[in-house]
Amino acid sequence: MRKYIGLVFVLMFCFASSLLVSCKSTKTGLSEGNAKTVLSADKIIANHYSNKKEFSTVYIKASANYRDDKQSQNVTAEIKIKKDEKILVSIRFLGITMAKALITPNEVRYYEKINGNYFEGDYATLSQWLGTDLDFQKVQNMLIGQALDDLKRGKYKTTIEDKLYKLENTSDSNTVKAFYFEAEHFLIKKQEISQPSKERMLEVSYPSHKEYNEAVLPLSIIIEAVQKKGKTNISINYNQVSFNEELSFPYSVPDGYERVNID
User: What is the dihedral of CA 239, 213, 20, 16, to 10 degrees?
Assistant: First the structure.
C-alpha cells in the first residue's frame, strides 16, 4: 500500500471537488488530423509548443481509476497548479480526504491516511524508488498535456506511425523515448519512456483535448506503468477546469503520522 500511494502521487493520478465555476471553452473535443507527410523534428516541435498555455493558475476537478494486479479503486480528486511553482493534490474517497501532496520544483511532500504515513524528499530519491526519472516540470507537463521532456534539447528521428507523427529520441542507448502527435494542432497523443534492459516502461496517452480561452488541455489521461513486478493502470477524467483564480495551497501533516524513509 505504501508504494501504491507514492506512485499515485508522483505520477499524479490524483484529483476532486470545490465550488469554483469552470471556464467556458471555445471548443469541446478539439478536432485532430492524420499525419500524411513526414515533417522535420524541428517543425513538429515548434508546432507543438505553439499551443497556448497562457495561465498563472489552474484548478482541476477530476475522477480517476487506479488498477494493478491486485486491486482496483475509484476516487475523486482536486488538483491546483500555480504554474512552474507548485502543485497541490488532494485525493478523496466518499468525500473523505485520504491523501494529499504538495509538489514544488525542489521537493515532494505527501501524506496518506490509511497507514498514517508521510514523506518529504527530493526527486532523485523518488525517481530511484519508482524506477522512472521524474521532476516537477515532467509532472506539470503531464497534467497539462505537454511533452514530458523539453523537446528542444533532444535529437529525434521522425516517422509516421498509426497516422501520428512520431519523434524518437536517439541520444540515449539505455532509455528509449518516443512522442506521438496528431497532425492538425500537433497535440501530444502519447508519450513512452522505456528501459528495455530493466524491463521498465511508462506510457501516457491523451485520448482527447479541449480548448479553453487560456489553454488547450487534455480531457482525459491514461497512464500505464510496467515493471518486473507487474502493471499499473491509471485513468483520469478532467470534469471541470478553471483558470487564473486566487488559489490557496494548504498542507500540513496530521499529528501522529509516521515518516516514510526510502532507502
Answer: 30
Q: What digits encode the pLDDT tens for the residues 242-258?
A: 999 999 999 999 999 99
Grid look-up 496518506 returns 112
Nearest to 220 by CA among 30, 19, 8: 30
Supply the pTM of this predicted model. 0.84
Q: Name every residue whose Cβ is closer than 8 Å to that of residue 254 and which is 6 or more positions away in sequence.
A: 111, 113, 116
Residue 181's nearest CA partner among 156, 215, 214 is: 156
Burial class (CB in 10 A: 0-12, 13-18, 19+), 245: middle
Please choose, from the candidates 146, 145, 164, the residue with its C-alpha nearest in 3D space to the C-alpha of residue 218: 145
